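Thread: Modeling a multi-component assembly for a lab meeting

Hi all, long-time lurker, first post. My supervisor asked me to bring a structural picture of a complex we are working on to next week's group meeting, and I have zero experience with this. I have the sequence lines for every component (934 residues in total). Could someone generate the structure of the whole assembly? Inputs are pasted exactly as I received them:
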Amino acid sequence: MRSLLTLRTPRLRPSGRQRPHWWVRKEISRSAESGSGRVCCTPGRPLPSGLPPGTSPAPLFPGAELGAPLRLRTGVAQSARAGRGGAGGGGRPGPGPPPPPPPPPPPPHKGLVRRRCSGPLGAALPALLTVGPPPMDEERTDLELYLDQCFAQVGQAVSILKWKRRSFERGVNLHGGQPGVKPVAWGGVTPGPRLPLLSPVVPDDVYMPNSSNPKMVFNSHLEEVKETPGHFSSVDLSFLPDELTQENKDQSVIRSKHEIEENCKTQSQQSSLSLPREQDIGLGLIGSSSLLNSHSHLYPADADSVQPSLEKPNSMPLVSITPMTPMTPVSECSGIVPQLQNIVSTVNLACKLDLKKIALHAKNAEYNPKRFAAVIMRIREPRTTALIFSSGKMVCTGAKSEEQSRLAARKYARVVQKLGFPARFLDFKIQNMVGSCDVRFAISLEGLVLTHQQFSSYEPELFPGLIYRMVKPRIVLLIFVSGKVVLTGAKERSEIYEAFENIYPILKGFKKA
Amino acid sequence: MPGGGRCPDCGSAELVDDSHYSQSQLVCSDCGCVVTEGVLTTTFSDEGNLREVTYSRSTGENEQVSRSQQRGLRRVRDLCRVLQLPSTFEDTAVAYYQQAYRHSGIRAARLQKKEVLVGCCVLITCRQHNWPLTMGTICALLYADLEVFSGTYMQIVKLLGLDVPSLCLADLVKTYCSSFKLFQASPSVPAKYVEDKEKMLSRTLQLVELADETWLVTGRHPLPVITAATFLAWQSLQPSERLTCSLARFCKLANVDLPCPASSRLQELLAVLLRMAEQLAWLQVLRLDKRSVVKHIGDLLQHRHTLVRKAFRDGTAELEAGEKQQQGWGKSPGQGKEEAATSSLDRPEGKRPASPALLLPPCMLKPPKRICPPPPISTVTGDEDISDSEIEQYLRTPQEVRDFQKAQAARQAAIGVSNPP
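Re: Modeling a multi-component assembly
Sure thing. I ran the full set together rather than chain by chain. Output:
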């Protein structure tokens, strides 16, 4: 056991770490739960040397706290640190507690177990406890404590998400009220009073730059959450960002789609076809190509079908489960659907080609090796152009939809086949999609570049439009003063629609000069 | 060291390029064995083949300022001096150039791009200090193409992650107007054309503000607008003598280049002024046209805020009323909305000939060049069968192939014949 005298060296900052690390907290939690927590309940302020070091600031922190066991902080002067720790204990949501006045002299001890301290918090949420970083001054300590709490809550949020995802994978119905479902991360603490804390913790990428929709839905969900404090399973966490990685998102999308489909069959409220469709539209058009193939022909008719089908979200409680983009209320929809203008795709024909022979035997081919090392071939239906390279790779441009692009690519492959090459059709991939639409009002580009400087680039000396690089989804928009918007850089149709829905409220804000 | 050099003694791959006094040596960091010394080129063994590493692939270029970078830095300083920029700008621009040069894409770029980069760094510095410098000026000084300049500029802004504020229009007006040689009489400038600088500046500023308010500046190059505004300001200060002078002649007098779009900006500005004049009672009776309105520019500018609101107010209000009506009827496709709005506006247009116009950018006021029909809803699945006949139409028959080859050979022969003499 270390000498506790080192605790009382005032204001000695440790050499390295200033913030407690996760593994330290785990240690604390483990020791806390085991109840054998070695207490280093030193006061916040440096004690006069006469006082024994084991004084507990417990009277000031009603929930008591567990200080960091000394053995975890070897070689580090703990002076005014440890006593501050545990200030976050007991689920205090607010900013760090006020600095404690000097505690009354406790009975002398030799660093033995302080049952009093550890008792009420034996089952307390361990992650919330902080060790109390060494302060420069009092304010910093409080701030550090508060930040530590927030840090902990981020961890909670992440673990909630993980739990949610795992629940989906297990097919758990959140709203079904299964009694036995208890999230592992919570550790038995009721979520009620702590949930509002999640709001400051949502990471920045959720707040899409200046898009009001997610925020609005977020707030409405938050209110909903506050109304039902006790019952965890009724908490709707769909507003939390889809931090899942891309492939997980796709998997969970497909899984959730299947879930919803099978649920709607049992519920039989609407035709089973319309529910996935409204799901797709209302939830920002989750874009798996499998969905697209079956529903592509429904998209042009979107504008009318969106509004009535979204009228009653309450009748579809399952709608809010999906963790993807939050459902936008009807009044927020712009009612404008961007038209796809161009699709660029690539395919591998997997055989070496003789470009001279192709140019000789094909009527619709042009080949000028001095200018460009590929054959430029065109077909009339669908009206597209292809660049065919001697390695067997091909680029197909000009189609107006994904299916047309695929059909056109197949036709080019067939032409190459007929010319005598063993062409195959491998790795067809859509590389870029371009869409355009018209918002029908004039946009003040100078105002837009002032408020969205980090995303916009407007150089009237070079180009009359404003180039807006949206982060999520990763799309580039060209915005013109006449209200025409061009969206490009998408790999999926849903990205274009989502980007437009994100930009429309921003543009509406700049309607009048 | 790059590559797979191994120490012959201990076989470790940890070779360090150290120099013993002035001799460069390749030393094994484990056993201290000197592998090579005095080597002028760096080598690495690649499956037994010793190959030289080019300078660009070695680390040499990170350790010293290369000659082209030195030249570039010198040019940055020279450009700042030519433009008579404050000395702090010079240091900032030099820092940007050095920062840019750290990126490999810039280091490996062509000389032309590096020249243009000099201008980009100076431009960014000026923009950040709100010093009005146009790209045209820099391109003229560097003898650079605007396309190359724009490409390099956009690339460097993205690469360095810079926040470049927009060109400050008011400052640009001041500097540009001051460059007009009209403030003193000279052999080329008759006395009646000489004008007071302050008056002209203030009036030009007001006209440019008016253009900004009426959507004539957004999306357009700022300089032609300022040229047109300067011309109108100059004319309106002594209209009796200056109405006969054209825009081209004015620019020649003032020793300033006439940008191409300036004449259309002039027409647009005059159209706006005419609309405003219709709202002034004592000007309505005069039935002004584009020439006579110049005489009254002073009055119009004096009341420009109210006039703009009046001249164009009802247009936007009508549009709003039309929209509200549409919303009351429930959601409808965008086309229906537009039709209703325009129809509601057409009626007052017919009744009152001098009705307020819509305050919109000129590109929205002009009729669309061609109406794009909405694309037909195609039910293509992408997996349909492709008929042989469809593919056959794109292939040449053997006879056609022979004809084509003959024609090509004939063409080649013709070119061969014509070339040698």
